[in-house]
Structure formats: C-alpha cells, structure tokens
Amino acid sequence: MAKKKENKIPYDKANDIKPLVAYFAIVNQGNADAIVEIFKKAGSSLQLVQMGHGTANKQIRDILGIEDNQKEIVISLIREEQMKEVTTELSAYFAASKRTKGIGFSVKLTGLMGVTMYQFLANLA
User: Fold this and answer.
1) Average pLDDT over residues 78-104
2) For residues 49 and 113, what is the distance between their CA atoms, to the nearest angstrom?
3) What CATH number corresponds to the domain at position 43?
4) CA-based nearest residue to 89, from 15, 35, 14, 12
5) Is 2 contained in some domain?
6) What is the tens place of the pLDDT at every residue in 37-70?
C-alpha cells in the first residue's frame, strides 16, 4: 500500500525565521570561558574556542601596553534579537577590570542550508 503524501507547510511559512549572527571575540588567554558563559546564558547554541597568537613584536606591544600576545578567539552563533543582551553583558564584563581586554565584532549570516541546521543553530530544536 502506498503512503499518502502529507501536505506539510514549509517551515519558513509556519514559523518566523530569525536572523543569525556569528560573533567573534578575541580576548587574552584565560578569558574565553567567561565569554562562552555570557553567550550560553543568552541562548547561544554554539561556541567555538580557538587559541591564537598575536603578531606584534615586543616593541609594538610595549608602545600599545600589551603584556602578552597569547589570545583566545571565541566564535559564537546567536539570534540577532539576542545581541543587545549579549553586548550589554560583554560591556559589563570588560568594564569590571582593566586586565580584561578584547575586541569583538559580529557578522550577520545571510544564508544557511537546511531547516534542521537552522533550528539547531538558532537554538530552536
């Protein structure tokens, strides 16, 4: 017996698609865990941490007041609507101490393949 084909409504027609943002934070070594926790609390489904090494020589680091060139790069995916909460928390974290320095920037994702992948990355699954 042949299965009857169901008329399913496409996900994007039945649900509101929220834009996703990839946020990159480059921080001193040892600060990545705090950044990851901020994103987890805000509902991020994915955080990647990568070790990095600054390229400035000692003379340039001395001029800029940079003690160590060992860095951690945190890449987090989050819904765009949650970015205001995250940036507020990040600002508070970096304002708490002069030793916690870093740089962050976000990139809006304009395309993604697959509904299941979107649901996972948007933390909707």
Assistant:
1) 87
2) 24
3) 3.30.70.120
4) 35
5) no
6) 999 999 888 899 999 887 778 888 788 777 777 8
3-state secondary structure the chain: CCCCCCCCCCHHHHCCCCCEEEEEEEEECCCHHHHHHHHHHHCCCEEEEEEEECCCCHHHHHHHCCCCCEEEEEEEEEEHHHHHHHHHHHHHHHHCCCCCCEEEEEEEECCCCCHHHHHHHCCCC
Q: How far is residue 76's CA from residue 64's CA, in Å, rounded to a whole number?
A: 28
C-alpha distances out from residue 2 to 5, 9, 102, Å: 9, 21, 60
Overall number of domains in the chain: 1
Paired strand residues for 104: 25
71: in domain: yes
State how far the alpha carbon of 118 is from the alpha carbons of 32, 45, 80, 86, in Å. 25, 11, 13, 20
Higher pLDDT, 95 or 54: 95
